From TrEMBL:
<dbReference type="InterPro" id="IPR014710">
    <property type="entry name" value="RmlC-like_jellyroll"/>
</dbReference>
<feature type="domain" description="JmjC">
    <location>
        <begin position="230"/>
        <end position="431"/>
    </location>
</feature>
<protein>
    <recommendedName>
        <fullName>JmjC domain-containing protein</fullName>
    </recommendedName>
</protein>
<dbReference type="Pfam" id="PF13621">
    <property type="entry name" value="Cupin_8"/>
</dbReference>
<dbReference type="InterPro" id="IPR003347">
    <property type="entry name" value="JmjC_dom"/>
</dbReference>
<comment type="similarity">
    <text>Belongs to the JARID1 histone demethylase family.</text>
</comment>
<feature type="region of interest" description="Disordered">
    <location>
        <begin position="1"/>
        <end position="21"/>
    </location>
</feature>
<dbReference type="InterPro" id="IPR041667">
    <property type="entry name" value="Cupin_8"/>
</dbReference>
Length: 454
């Protein structure tokens, strides 16, 4: 997803891996056979296109509207015919949101039960067949209780104050630094930067290699009030790379998921942060098994069918850099205090979700992005220490966290290559449909699935 640091790595991997799709899989047949959501989307899209065609004014009216728009140098969609078409599109897509949630059985819990989630919960890990049938094939999340990781040595070792610091005493790790805990997220464009109409940019963290004990200290002390938030979140299979010394404390893969998906994970990542690190809305081309070891992770989820609600637009890429030239040697933590944002040169654009679910001004954000704020609430799911979330590929997620007793939130996730099947094609087609809901909702040139994920 980072288009600078993080996303470009994922993007490269995705390109390489997508070339090898199909070589390792055992279960291509059954996945297609259970592809209920894909078929449902196809049915809805056919209906939607049928309605738009059937209810459009006659072709002569369309031609007149298009000519009038050309003469006035406005878009066809600003004409009466265009607005009529947009209204139909929006109505049909809103129906799709409701019907796909219904199809997946993701019903909002009672508002009286603040802790409840629409995500189905299992006390024990599923069998591979049940996981494939009930979750992977329909693309339906699953939360699995602490029984899933109770046998991991990490479950007891990592939440302590000192185990990781001792085990990784002389290990340099990649630390992602931002002033406010929002890496790979939109930020106000730095003053003086030119050549883009957007007032925002896509900001990537400043990445430093730091000895783990110093990294843990910086993470615990992270605070936007002090202008520095550190998050260890290198997404390049880092548990088996930088953190290899402690990789044996967790399962090398998730056996029931590997069996169901017909492959081993492509990447196993470690995430260590405190309450100030937030991951903005995005999606990934992976089936994700996300296990929390210490603290809690709070997910906001939107199914891929709700693509339009996130207003994915192109933003110029920017990176945080030290405000003054760094003099310290690698491994030292002093002077890591001030960062400034710089637009990347040569400029490149990153397609990213425009929506911040916790904006400074809710009124302003809701007026700019009504499809998100007026639509069904995102599906909330808190994953507690010991629990595992299955997050199907292409689901949008926004993640915040609460630390455990050691002052850290620690999680491991297993990314499995997704199946680039007919559902993928349907979602791409859906995302290419334009809903012109006010000026904030104009699709960007590269809309489709080249996108913010990886
Ligand atoms: O834990 C986080 O901060 C983000 C996790 C995430 O985006 C992922 O697993 O894909």
């Amino acid at each position: 997803m980072e288009m600078s640091g993080r996303t470009s790595k994922k993007q490269q991997r995705c390109e390489q891996w997508s070339q090898s799709i199909g070589k390792r899989r055992k279960f291509d047949g059954p996945l297609d056979a259970f592809d209920g959501v894909g078929r449902w989307i196809s049915r809805l899209l056919r209906r939607l296109l049928g309605e738009v065609t059937a209810e459009d004014p006659d072709p002569a009216c369309w031609r007149r509207a298009a000519a009038a728009a050309r003469n006035r140098k406005t878009s066809v969609d600003q004409t009466v015919a265009g607005r009529h078409r947009n209204a139909l599109m929006e109505r049909a897509v809103r129906e799709l949101w409701a019907e796909s949630r219904d199809l997946l059985g993701l019903h909002s819990p009672s508002p009286d039960d603040a802790a409840a989630s629409a995500v189905p919960r299992a006390d024990l890990p599923p069998t591979p067949l049940a996981f494939l049938r009930d979750h992977v094939s329909p693309g339906r999340p699953l939360l699995i209780s602490a029984a899933a990781t109770r046998h991991w040595p990490a479950a007891t070792l990592w939440p302590t104050e000192s185990y990781l610091t001792d085990a990784l005493r002389s290990t340099a790790v990649s630390l992602h630094l931002t002033p406010d805990g929002r890496a790979d997220a939109l930020a106000p464009r730095p003053a003086g930067s030119s050549s883009s109409s957007s007032s925002k940019c896509f900001a990537s963290a400043h990445v430093r290699r730091v000895d783990f004990p110093a990294a843990a200290r910086l993470i615990r002390a992270s605070d936007p009030a002090a202008g520095l938030v550190a998050y260890a979140q290198q997404q390049d299979d880092c548990l088996r790379g930088e953190y290899a010394a402690v990789a044996g404390n967790v399962d090398a893969h998730v056996p029931w998921a590997s069996e169901a998906l017909g492959c081993l994970p492509e990447a196993v990542n470690l995430w260590i942060g405190n309450a100030h690190s937030v991951t903005s809305f995005h999606k990934d081309h992976y089936d994700n098994i996300y296990a929390v070891v210490s603290g809690e992770k709070h997910f906001f989820l939107l199914p891929p069918t709700e693509h339009h609600r996130l207003y994915i637009r192109d933003y110029p890429a920017a990176s945080y850099v030290p405000a003054q030239a760094e003099q310290e040697a690698e491994g030292e933590e002093q002077q890591l205090t001030r960062l400034k944002l710089q637009i990347e040169e040569p400029q490149r654009m990153v397609p990213w979700s425009s929506v911040d679910p916790y904006p400074a001004s809710l009124e302003e954000e809701a007026a700019s992005f009504p499809l998100y704020f007026d639509g069904p609430p995102p599906i909330r799911c808190t994953v507690r220490a010991g629990e595992m979330l299955y997050l199907p590929s292409m689901w949008f997620h926004h993640v915040s966290q609460s630390p455990g007793p050691n002052g850290l939130t620690i999680a491991v996730n297993y990314w499995y290559d997704m199946q680039f099947d007919i559902k993928y094609a349907y979602f791409n087609f859906l995302s290419s449909l334009e809903i012109d809901h006010g000026s904030s909702n104009k699709p960007h040139a590269s809309e489709g699935d080249s996108e913010e994920d990886d």
